[in-house]
Amino acid sequence: MRGRAIFVYRSNNATMFAVRKKHFPVLCRRVTAQRKFEFSVFFTILDNMKNISELSILKLVTIINFVFAAIGIVLSFFSRSSSVLFDALYSFVSSFFTIISARVVKLVTSAENRDYQFGYGSFEPFFIIIRTMVILVIYAFLLANSISIIRHGGNNVDISLVMVYTIVSLIICFVISMALRRIARKQKSPLLVAEYRSWINDTLLSLSVFVAFSLIVVLRRTSLNFITPYIDPAITILLILFMLPTLISQFFTNLRELLVAAPSPEIQDKLDHIIEPYIEKYDFAGFQVYSTKRGRNLYMVIHIYMKTDSTVRRLDKIRKAIIKDIKKFWHFSDIDIIFTIDPSWIPLSVPVIPAETPVIAVEIADENGDK
């Protein structure tokens, strides 16, 4: 599949039938079967792409992004369109950071070393934060420029130069964003998720630009022609305001990860549900999970409180089973499981003793059965 152009086969056998009343049901069945075949081939291609490495996917989308960005920037100057310039700059910045993200992928999937003994998981949220900040700066520049254009009477856009570009860009952005969405879900890659969001934003940009240009074409033939110079900068302002919430949310989500905050409540609840059956099965006193998520990596320390002593071999067997179940839920996880009878040492192992941290009192039986 890699490096090979793939074309969806379209059968023309249905056109051999004359469109007559008696042949119409046959033709409908042929067309329906043909459509089912085409969609099945399309989704089969996507399923096969899920097995392609992150780096190969990032390289492919970078090339496509860069080509469209270069064409868009050139056309924006000739057409005097701020919305096309906005779309093209967004694509250019995305392609630039995608090149850097290839290096980040290699880091986060590599083993820990002496300098980074807990791995490179923090590089993913750090990279996404930098990328988001750069995009926000570009948005601020384009917002100020669009406001200035409106204050100075707007601008007349050359529609003929950009209409075909916008339509092609819209189709390609939509197809790639849907493909990235499926692949990112399969591989659970934050970088591919960020790339998908970037492409879906690009799709919305292209759609909005297409609607704006179509509106200009229509209004130029009416008595409302006087407002057409303001449509292009106005649509740029609306696009920026529409996309700001997503970028701000992405910024703070990754900032929380970089600051080692706890993962989402859904992840924490899932971890509890995985561990609880083992607590009941082996009659443990309880457990406590301390977890954080940085990029794709989920880190956790699990304290399991025991009622009575047990052999190390038995505890290792239980630990291994728990780790396997957690790995099924989250493959990129770093897990430490500690069994203890006397949890009074736990507050001593942290710099500050939180007031709300519960200390479970467990009665310990000695060899004679006395407590």
Overall description:
The structure is a single chain. The chain has a 3-stranded mixed sheet. The protein is mainly α and 371 residues long. The chain contains 9 helices and 3 strands. It folds into 2 domains: 50-258, Alpha-lytic protease prodomain-like (Up-down Bundle), CATH 1.20.1510; 265-349, Cation efflux protein, cytoplasmic domain (Alpha-Beta Plaits, 2-Layer Sandwich), CATH 3.30.70. Helices cover 63% and strands 7% of the residues. Helix 2 packs antiparallel against helix 3 and helix 8 (265-281) packs antiparallel against helix 9 (312-329).
Counting structural domains, the number is 2
CATH topology of the largest domain: Alpha-lytic protease prodomain-like
Mean pLDDT: 78
User: Regarding CATH, which class of the largest domain?
Assistant: Mainly Alpha
N- to C-terminal separation?
A: 67 Å
- CATH-level-4 superfamily name of the largest domain: Cation efflux protein transmembrane domain
Properties at a glance:
single chain, 371 residues, mainly alpha, Alpha-lytic protease prodomain-like, Alpha-Beta Plaits, three-stranded mixed β-sheet, 9 helices, disordered N terminus
Write a brief structural summary.
This protein is mainly alpha-helical and 371 residues long. The chain contains nine helices and three strands; from the N terminus they run H-H-H-H-H-H-H-H-E-E-H-E.
What does the secondary structure layout of this molecule look like, with pairings?
Layout: H1 24-49, H2 54-79, H3 82-108, H4 123-151, H5 159-187, H6 190-219, H7 228-258, H8 265-281, E1 286-294, E2 297-305, H9 312-329, E3 333-340
Parallel strand pairs: 2-3
Antiparallel strand pairs: 1-2
